[in-house]
UniProtKB/TrEMBL annotation:
Keyword Isomerase found: yes
UniProtKB keywords: Isomerase, Plasmid
EC number: 5.4.2.6
Biological source species: Azospirillum lipoferum (strain 4B)
Full protein name: Beta-phosphoglucomutase
GO molecular function terms listed in the Swiss-Prot or TrEMBL record: beta-phosphoglucomutase activity; phosphoglycolate phosphatase activity
Gene Ontology CC, one term: cytosol
NCBIfam families in the record: HAD-SF-IA-v1 (TIGR01549)
GO process terms (BP): DNA repair
């Protein structure tokens, strides 16, 4: 079996979690929905549809498809305005380059749609036309369902059971367990070490740079 790495994007490879939090806050505010920023942050990483369903359920508001569609559009518009501040996390490019140099397959699987993922991918230097990138547009269900990671493993032709899922949220770790992959947690998205470990993370590192330093611990070697 060939080792492979399946990466989440926001908070894992790019420093974009809080841009998404602020974009969702703006979208909710424009609809007159009051919700604390910390509550929004705790939902980042799951699929946009499930995210909005859970947020609206917490507010006690009636949920209808028109409102969900408006929130998604407002979030995408707000995020595009914030995308100028997107930067790769420390070591992210070096980590991907190292894996490529060692001939270890990798892919990116994000709960975001391509319209919001593209700016982060560009800053990361990843061309979705050449690299394996799976977005929410391509699967029926996103995290915490395993579909994204299963599709990413299939895209690069590896057995999901031999893959490591690298993510910053509990939703990544839950999806990894459901996909039968091993989870690696990063602290760069705002979740704590214990939360990630309780959700199934085999190892937890600070950020991509820290993971690169310890890559041999998780099968990252020639």
């Amino acid at each position: 079996m060939t080792n492979a790495f399946l990466f989440d994007l926001d908070g894992t490879l790019t420093d974009t979690v809080y841009q998404h939090v602020l974009a969702w806050r703006e979208a909710l505010d424009e609809e007159g929905i009051a919700l604390s920023v910390w509550r929004i942050h705790r939902k980042i990483g799951m699929s946009g549809g499930l995210f909005t369903n859970m947020l609206l359920r917490e507010t006690g508001l009636a949920i209808d498809q028109d409102l969900l569609d408006r929130l998604r559009r407002r979030h995408a518009d707000a995020y595009k305005r914030l995308a100028a501040g997107v930067v790769p996390l420390p070591g992210a490019r070096d980590l991907l380059d190292a894996l490529t140099g060692m001939g270890i397959p990798w892919a990116i699987a994000t709960s975001g749609r391509m319209e919001t993922a593209r700016p982060a991918l560009e800053k990361l230097g990843v061309d979705p036309g050449r690299a394996a990138v799976v977005t929410r547009d391509e699967v029926q269900y996103a995290k915490p369902d395993p579909d994204l990671f299963l599709a990413a493993a299939a895209r690069i032709g590896v057995d999901i059971a031999s893959a490591f899922v690298v993510g910053d949220s509990i939703w990544d770790m839950i999806a990894a367990k459901r996909a039968r992959a091993l989870g690696i947690g990063l602290l760069s998205g705002g979740y704590g070490r214990e939360e990630l470990e309780r959700s199934g993370a085999l190892r937890v590192y600070e950020d991509p740079a820290d993971m690169l330093t310890h890559l041999d611990e998780v099968g990252g070697r020639r």
